[in-house]
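agent> fetching stored inputs for the KG4 docking request
agent> found them:
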Amino acid sequence: MYTLAIETSCDETALAIYSSEGPIGDVLLSQVRVHSPFGGVVPDLAAREHTRNLLPLLDKLLKDTCFNLEKLDFISFTLTPGLIPSLVVGVAFAKSIAYDLGKPLVPVHHLEGHIYSVFLEKPVEYPFLSLIVSGGHTDIYVVWNFGRYEFLGGTLDDAVGESYDKVARLLGLGYPGGPIIDRLAKEGRDIYHLPRPMLKEDNLNMSFSGLKTAVRQLIESHKDCRKEDVAKSFQSAVLDVLVDKVIKAMELTGIRRLVVVGGVSANSELRSRFKNLSETIGFELHIPHPRLSTDNALMIAYAGMERFKRGITAGDEINPEPNVPLEAFGKEWS
Ligand code: KG4
Ligand code: ZN
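agent> prediction call returned; pasting tokens
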């Protein structure tokens, strides 16, 4: 079985061809240069870039893989969550190809794609905990099986990736902030005590907007502070919260198998903190390769293939939604 997967939920235009045996090829075009003057993603510009880039990218993918579209069994695409202008372009592209080839459409939830990015490397036994840390989400789920997700807790305000991007902007570092702060923190010292929001609370809720405000106050009151030290102190606060909440989730559920996914899971200190934790307190840890942590179309293809195998397809009346909760996604089609 073969699928073409389309991911345009934010500012990466990504396509992949995937077979039930594994990946055939994928392409990705980042829009970082378009958005960086604005310090964040501008939805209308993102949509225009997706429109500009999808067809040339498809051409490249087909040339690279020598694949004939006639062989496709279905089209997978990200339906939700994401920026509506961006999603609309990908969904319209998916519909046109499906219509032209007479093939079914398989909508995928972007977060389900992130969770299953680890399966592209190695399947994980159920049940497991999933910490999703991206530009738009910071959530902890129990994954009981494919399609069965239980939300345990998450951020009440900014997502972790969003707070990386906002702190980078405060430091005048450029966009996206996550990889820049990751690099700078390696040269920095954890010398500023920043708040660890909601750490003491006995639940899995999180909050990162106060932390960003604390960084702003720190920069204003310490005009001579080194950016490296601010980056390191900020990152330590974020990771203390994430580690604490994951430990609480393990205590609550008794599940000692964790996947950490989403763009922020590319962070080098996050990876080493969770690796050390798994060795110290003993649990199974899976974090995808950094290339699969950030948005890509292979993860959408994998989740699409699992949905198609279960007979889940959608009619061409399907339309993008800004934010359908993962645990509710697709229930009406199953
Ligand atoms: O999953 P993703 O590619 O897109 C969304 O679904 O949001 O995540 C993007 C986020 C951005 O906020 C970016 O700054 C962050 O992931 N990010 C990182 C790193 N690489 C990307 N954050 C911290 N350290 C990194 N190395
Ligand atoms: Zn994402």
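agent> quick read of the result: The mean pLDDT is 96.
agent> awaiting further instructions
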